[in-house]
Amino acid sequence: MYSYDTVSEAVTGLRQRGFDLDFDARFDCVVCKDHKLKPEEFEITEVYRFEGNTDPADEAIVYGIESKHGLKGILVNGYGPDADELSNEMVKKLSFKHN
After folding, report:
1. Is residue 62 classed exposed, middle or buried when 0-12, 13-18 and 19+ CB atoms within 10 A define those classes?
2. How far is the CA of 18 from the CAs of 15, 25, 63, 66, 73, in angstroms?
3. Is the pLDDT of residue 99 over 50?
4. For 26-35, 52-61, 69-78, which range has the lowest pLDDT when averaged over its residues?
5. Cα–chain center distance at 97
6. Listed residue (81, 95, 3) closest to 48, CA to CA
7. What CA–CA distance (Å, rounded) separates 39 from 47?
8. Three-class SS string for the chain?
9. pLDDT (mean) for 67-72
10. Residue 72 burial by Cβ neighbours in a 10 Å radius (0-12, 13-18, 19+)
11. Which among 45, 99, 34, 84 is positioned nearest to 68, based on CA atoms?
C-alpha cells in the first residue's frame, strides 16, 4: 500500500497506476460518464483517509475502484455531517477494511 500526505498526492499516484476515471457516489451506486456501477459490480482496491488538521472541510477518503469489467477509477468522498446520504449497500461497500 502506498502512503500519501494529501488528497491531491493520492489522486496523482492512483492516476499514475491506471485509475483514470473520476467516479461520483450516488445513493445506490457510483457513476462516471456513461458508467453506473452498483456495489456488487466493483471492488475497492485502495483507500486513503485524510483528516483536516484545522478545517473539517478538508476531511476526505480517496478510493481506488476497479470494476468487474476492467474499469479503474477514483472516488473522492467527504465524510462527517456533510457527507452524502447513501444506501446501506453503499455504506457497507465504502466501509472497506484493509490490513
Report:
1. buried
2. 5, 20, 13, 10, 8
3. no
4. 52-61
5. 13
6. 3
7. 16
8. CCCCCCHHHHHHHHHHCCCCEEEEECCCCEEECCEEECHHHEEEEEEEEECCCCCHHHCEEEEEEEECCCCEEEEEEECCCCCCCCCHHHHHHHCCCCC
9. 93
10. middle
11. 45
- Please report, to the nearest 10 degrees, the dihedral formed by the alpha carbons of residues 88, 32, 77, 16 taken in order: 130
**13 vs 16: CA distance, rounded Å:** 5
Q: Which three cell numbers stand for residue 54?
A: 484545522
Q: What is the pTM of this model?
A: 0.84
Residue 52: which pLDDT band, with cuts at 50, 70 and 90?
A: low
Q: Between β-strands 72-78 and 21-25, what pairing exists: parallel, antiparallel or unpaired?
A: parallel
Specify the pLDDT at position 24: 92
